[in-house]
Please model this.
Amino acid sequence: MADPVIAWSILIFGYLLPLAHVAVTPQGGPWRAPEGGRCPFSPRIGWLVLVLLLGPIGWLMFMRGRRRRAAPPDQPSTT
Model:
């Protein structure tokens, strides 16, 4: 009885919820690849592939990258 519950929990919390988070968050990047770029994939599609292949580790990489991008750069003192 506990084996199916554990398997479904790993599937839902390890893969489906992180994929849904990357797909709907506004900080995930654009859905379309930048004009003139050589890569046909957009940043969001790249993150979705990473989360799909790596599961929770890919989601943690996305969270770390999103936090690093969202933080304002340190301003040097002008005094």
